């Protein structure tokens, strides 16, 4: 089985969003994605795993397995849960370098930045930043091991 690239996954998401005519439908889809996100184990719901810069509470953890980063997350806000599930779909299962080099252009292509409230947009950027921060940390650990 070949693994899809970050760009291929981003393109899939852009295609999926193009199927919806209205932002109400797109929000419903994002909420549905959030509902499908597996719950995060309670042991990870602690202060050091919270994403700073999010108005909602978002817990994000990362694990390094076989050279790839696996993300898990949860949020107390249903829309945010959907947003983080999209970010996990795009970035999880890739190497630190692939994650660090991802431009995350799909966010603009699906119109997220223009349709989210400023606080949610800031939160979305904070989640991406935290995911890339984990990638940088795992990359430096690998080189210093």
Summary of the model, kept short:
About 55% of the residues lie in helices and about 10% in strands. The chain is built from 7 helices and 2 strands; from the N terminus they run H-H-E-E-H-H-H-H-H.
How is this fold's topology laid out?
Elements: H1 6-18, H2 23-36, E1 58-65, E2 68-75, H3 78-91, H4 96-101, H5 106-109, H6 112-115, H7 118-144
Antiparallel strand pairs: 1-2
Overall description:
- This protein has a two-stranded antiparallel ribbon with strand order 1-2.
- It has helices at 6-18, 23-36, 78-91, 96-101, 106-109, 112-115, 118-144; strands at residues 58-65, 68-75.
- The relative contact order is 0.18.
- The protein is mainly α and 145 residues long.
- The longest helix is centred in the C-terminal third of the chain and has 27 residues, at 118-144.
- It starts with 5 loop residues before the first helix and ends with a helix.
- It has one domain: Sufe protein. Chain: A.
- Helix 1 packs across helix 3 (78-91) and helix 3 (78-91) packs parallel to helix 7 (118-144).
- It is globular and about 50 Å long.
Shape: globular
Total domains? 1
- Poorly predicted spans: none
CATH topology, by name, is Sufe protein. Chain: A
Radius of gyration: 15 Å
Name the strands of the widest sheet in spatial order: 1-2
What's the total helix number?
Answer: 7
What is the average of the pLDDT values?
A: 93
Strand residue percentage:
5-15%
CATH architecture: Alpha-Beta Complex
Helix proportion of residues, in percent? 55-70%
Global structural class: mainly alpha
Highest-level CATH class:
Alpha Beta
Distance between the termini: 30 Å
Largest sheet: 2 strands, antiparallel
